[in-house]
Design goal:
Beta-Lactamase; Alpha-Beta Plaits; five-stranded mixed sheet; 44% helix; Nucleotide_cyclase
Length: 305
């Protein structure tokens, strides 16, 4: 077919002319440059036979829709995000292949010919991806403790209210574990705040790595942490607390050739379904049990309904 080569080959988008059977009638310069396929080498070939990853039925349906309605038809490029696979050579791009939008426009209704416009939206996708990541980082910053990267008290309170409502509806157990690092002030005074921070981070990592994905850990301030254990009875929660206590007890931090011994005390309380108590009440009970653990020699787990 003869096309206006000036417009056809200078426009900054890919253009493919197809008949109703998806045979390629024209392939512009933009595509030649980016695919290394010359128009003379592809003209007359069926686009779905040449590029077997294209959904034949979907494309045929869209071409027919454009011809019948005499209006542009948007072609959804899922799942590949492209119609024609075009490699991106920039080392700065997060994508391996060009991200594309494709619109099918009636070109000659009588001859049942359509024009496919391929838009390169890679740059836009990269900007959106960066914004999504920045947004995720901001949410993470607002929900987590800056030093230890575990959740903060505000996030914990919001999460706990929802978890209690879920526990009521599904009638499953929910337990709270209050944790306090023993003699943390002595560590800070003896070795300095940098080592104190290392202790906080080390214990946070232990807590985070020991609980299940359905549970959360939060720093409530200073050397105090809280665990919320979903679907965990008092017996289960006590067992988890005891496991963590032993791991902390056996973990050493070395400073100038000396080992710092760490221990923690635990108070474990379980949601009382009969009294329908709120999170404040459970936290208070866990904190009271933690106080008993510290009062009776520290490095202990004390639990109660």
């Amino acid at each position: 077919m003869n096309f206006d080569n000036t417009i056809f080959n200078t426009i900054d988008n890919g253009i493919i002319i197809l008949d109703e059977n998806l045979n390629i009638l024209a392939w512009n310069r933009w595509l030649e440059i980016r695919t290394d396929i010359l128009e003379k080498d592809i003209e007359g070939q069926n686009i779905c036979e040449k590029f077997t990853y294209i959904d034949n039925k979907k494309l045929k349906r869209k071409v027919k829709a454009a011809l019948v309605t005499k209006n542009p038809s948007y072609y959804n490029v899922d799942p590949h995000q492209h119609l024609i696979k075009i490699k991106i050579h920039s080392i700065n791009s997060v994508y391996e292949y060009m991200q594309q939008d494709v619109t099918i426009v009636p070109y000659d209704i009588d001859k049942k010919i359509v024009c496919l416009y391929i838009y390169d939206k890679t740059a836009l996708c990269e900007i959106n991806l960066k914004l999504e990541r920045l947004n995720d980082e901001l949410i993470d910053l607002s929900n987590k403790d800056y030093l230890t990267k575990v959740y903060n008290r505000r996030y914990f309170n919001d999460f706990a209210k929802k978890a209690i409502e879920l526990a009521k509806r599904s009638e499953h157990d929910l337990s709270i574990v209050a944790i306090d690092i023993d003699r943390f002030k002595t560590i800070n005074d003896t070795f300095g705040h940098i080592i104190g921070d290392e202790v906080l981070v080390t214990i946070s990592d232990i807590l985070r790595n020991t609980i299940r994905k359905s549970d959360i850990v939060a720093r409530f301030g200073g050397e105090e942490f809280i665990l919320l254990l979903n679907n965990a009875s008092l017996k289960d929660a006590t067992k988890i607390a005891e496991k963590i206590r032993k791991i902390i007890e056996n973990t050493k931090i070395e400073v100038d050739g000396k080992e710092i011994n760490m221990t923690s005390s635990f108070g474990v309380a379980t949601f009382n379904k009969e009294n329908e108590e709120d999170i404040t009440s459970i936290l208070q009970r866990a904190d009271d049990l933690l106080y008993i653990a510290k009062k009776h020699g520290r490095n202990k787990v004390v639990s109660s309904l």
